[in-house]
Amino acid sequence: MTKLYVGNLPYTTSNQDLQDMFAKFGAVASAMIITDRYSGRSKGFGFVEMENDEEAQKAIAEINGTQMEGRSVVVSVARPREERPQGSFGGRDDSRGGGGGYGGGRGGDRGDRGGRNRDNH
């Protein structure tokens, strides 16, 4: 079984479209477009699991770089989740929160400095 990442898809692509695209090359175990959990809209990428590794490689060779509604589709073997750093989302969220707070503080400082400069002149 080979799991493939399929990216740069048109936002109108459905799970069935994805399934049909890869079924030409062999047995597809699953095909799923990733959607935003809040809006339900496509994020423009998905994953396909193909039962046969050789068929998966043929699908990559044939589909990667092809045009779909003006977009150049990207297909590659999906990286396992465990290869990604653990806590990367938490780290990004923390830095966003910290960065936002820090940026807000700096903005306040600038306002204070502006007031001091006016007092000095």
Structure description:
This protein is of the alpha+beta class and 121 residues long. The chain has a domain at 2-79: Alpha-Beta Plaits (2-Layer Sandwich). The chain contains 3 helices and 6 strands, in the order βαββαβββα. It has helices spanning 15-23, 53-63, 88-120, and strands at 2-7, 28-35, 42-50, 67-68, 71-72, 74-77. The strands form 2 sheets. The chain has a 4-stranded antiparallel β-sheet with strand order 2-3-1-6, with helices on one face. The termini are far apart.
How far the N terminus sits from the C terminus, by CA atoms, comes to 73 Å
What would CATH call the homologous superfamily of the domain at 2-79? Answer: RRM (RNA recognition motif) domain
Q: Please tell me what the overall shape is.
A: globular
Structural class label: alpha+beta
The SSE string, one letter per element, is: EHEEHEEEH
Characterize the main sheet: 4 strands, antiparallel
CATH third-tier fold name of the domain at 2-79: Alpha-Beta Plaits
How many DSSP-defined strands? 6
CATH architecture of the domain at 2-79: 2-Layer Sandwich
Low-confidence stretches: 91-110
Quaternary status: single chain
- The number of helical segments is 3
Briefly, what CATH class of the domain at 2-79? Alpha Beta
Estimate percent helicity: 40-55%
User: What do the pLDDT scores average to?
Assistant: 80
Indicate the radius of gyration in whole angstroms: 23 Å
Strand order of the largest sheet: 2-3-1-6
Strand content: 25-35%
